[in-house]
Fold GDP-mannose 4,6-dehydratase.
Amino acid sequence: MTKKALITGITGQDGSYLAELLLEKGYEVHGIKRRASLFNTQRVDHIYEDPHVDNARLKLHYGDLTDSSNLTRILRDVEPDEVYNLGAQSHVAVSFEAPEYTADVDAIGTLRLLEAIRFLGLEKKTRFYQASTSELYGLVQEIPQRETTPFHPRSPYAVAKMYAYWIAVNYREAYGMYACNGILFNHESPRRGETFVTRKITRGLANIAMGLEPCLYMGNIDSLRDWGHAKDYVRMQWMMLQQDTPEDFVIATGVQFSVREFISWAASDLGITLEFTGTGVDEIATVTAVEGNLAPMVKTGDVLMRIDPRYFRPAEVETLLGDPTKAKEKLGWVPEITAREMCREMVEADHKSARRHALLKSHGLELPVSVE
Ligand code: NDP
Ligand code: GDR
């Protein structure tokens, strides 16, 4: 029997990689996409199949985590073996601007899905994966963080995700549902949203290299993160639902770097050497050398990064470092791509796109380049 999976957030970074993985494994994959005024399926267009042809295995449904009746109807029609709840307002800084919406989608949205599964009598059939997060640890109580480390969320996003974490545990305990939390540390890729820090850096510096942007404006570059690759992490999301009994797992690399280091890596992948001088909001990064031909519009002495306090958060998560021992011992999961390798892959992809833009510009076909 072909297994059926339903993915909320299929149009996002993880959703797209997970859909690819499940299709490779022979699943019929259903995804929920939001109605938007522009097409928003760019990350899954390459795997989308015309629904008019027989045996199309990727199907998209319009829906929203704020709409119970819509979720119930989709679950009733699909009767999935596995639900991956990846949909969320996932930006921590934005959650301070839109706390109520974030709670509605990230916290109550999770409850809506679990309750719909129960209401439809699918609680013994459907396995449920909840996209939990290292942001739950927030003001960290223990280094490194593991499954038993106490939570101290530091943003409306993290507080909403804490509700989602516990409601998944509660439905497991109360109704015997197969529900698991993956407590995932930051993971990135060339498909990462453009306003998360790694992608902002790789895309921003690639644009600067090709003369499309003048300077990168950053927030807290002292922040430390444990960065992995999204491809490695979605593999673990699937593995978690294949066990005999549901459990929660920390997914991380066990290594951390600062945002400043990530900026240096990305610059170096473009042949640029940077020197950081000054402190606090006066810190800048100046070019001390340029090698090769990847950054034709950059010269020694240019200032490529400045601090803009607009990007500081009302409460910051300064440091995150995960301990993935349980995932390794119980499931044999180990990440295959290092943060350094991932940075190179992201820079290559963003540089390719910047070159395309620069070429169009040189022919008088200037396209606006969005910056945050
Ligand atoms: P993205 O922001 O790339 O994707 C989020 C997805 O959720 C998009 O498909 C988005 O749709 C969808 N979505 C947003 N609001 C709603 C809504 N109201 N109803 C239905 N769908 C909605 O996130 P990631 O792929 O990076 O992350 C996946 C999940 O994992 C998220 O829940 C995130 O919070 C969590 N997580 C992510 C980590 C990371 O480092 N990437 C680490 C730990 C947890 P649209 O495309 O239309 O915007
Ligand atoms: P995070 O990711 O908040 O950890 O949440 P993000 O990449 O946004 O920030 C990481 C760190 O970088 C600092 N920072 C900046 N961040 C952004 N976005 N823009 C800047 O200009 C900037 N300058 C410095 C931040 O302050 C922060 O300390 C991500 C999301 O994917 C969540 O959904 C997920 O749950 C967690 O990772 C784990």
Summary: The pocket of guanosine-5'-diphosphate-rhamnose (ligand 2) is lined by residues 90, 92-93, 133-135, 185-186, 195-197, 200, 218-221, 223, 225, 259, 311, 313, 316-317 (CB under 6 Å). DSSP finds ten helices and 15 strands in the chain. The mean pLDDT is 97.
